[in-house]
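Our consortium's second objective concerns turning raw sequence data into structural hypotheses that experimental partners can test. To show how far this objective has progressed, the report includes one record in full. It was chosen at random from the queue rather than selected for favorable results. The single chain below, 339 residues long, was entered without modification.
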Amino acid sequence: MITYQLTVNDLADMRFAYSPLLETATSLWALRWPERYVLHLPWIRRARAALADAPGARLEILDGLLGAERGWLPDFVTPRPETPLPEFADELQRVRDTPVTSAVTDFRAVYGRHPLPAVTDPAVVADTLHWYWQLAIEPYWPRMRAVLEADMLHRARLLARDGAGGVLVELDRRARLTDGYLRLYAGHALDYDVDVAGRGLWLVPALFLPQTVSPVGPDQPPTVAYPARGIGTLWESAPSRPPEAVSDLIGAARAGLLTAIDGPVSTTELARRLGVTPGAVSQHLGVLLRAGLLSRARAGRVVLYVRTDLAEQLLQGGPAGGKATDDTDKVHPVPGKSG
């Protein structure tokens, strides 16, 4: 159990961020234990295919980032955010700049009594993570980022409506906030109390987390990473079909678009889901916005759209159709250790 003692100033300084480096590092869990990440099976299959002919030395370095017993990651490969919308290259430079002695200390923390991996040099680790990012994460980053930004927008609205307490207790079903103490379950082996003492609190949505985690130790600025909303839609190849009556009312194209907006989503992501151009999507979004069926808000550089209560009532007028997803063939072992 991790316990953060928060002041009023800490709650007022609560910030949201995403981290492409965190997604890159934690995706290694899905490759090693696909049975725990069923929603990511389409990506796992593609990533393993991309890595099938990779040099064994690089795969050994990636596999070595996961601790021998619990699969924990060394803290230096998941640094605390410094900005809400970081670039992968900037985060990777922080890994590269890590002192060798600090990296070895982090590896010892996750390997315990087991021998350390052959490679612990931060520069080599950074180069390998960059190579892996280009193969397995970067091709899918726009859609991944859209889900993360949608989550941030949802939490920001929750913060405005219910305050900091409403946001914090929704991070995880086991999260508790009592008398200024935020208690988060982060595994049986983690147990520490932290007096945040005016240092604020970063909240980071992530796609490959089974539960809330604190990616830095108790002496570092507090950061809580948590499972993002909408992960189930990440690898969809087609949205649900709208009720026939809604199609008759506003047209099949706009009804399909309205149905596809099952959470805050960008124009680019909607175009990908529907297989049309962003320009075509924008025209229909404008009509739906003027009709009061959508609202919009900006999250960083992206405008996200969300259905209004009126749209929800409209779509509840009939049963939704089926949902098609990517084929999830049997997953074969990843090159490298099986863990």
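The partners drew two points from this record. The chain has a mean pLDDT of 83. The radius of gyration is 21 Å. Both points have been shared with the crystallography group to help prioritize constructs.
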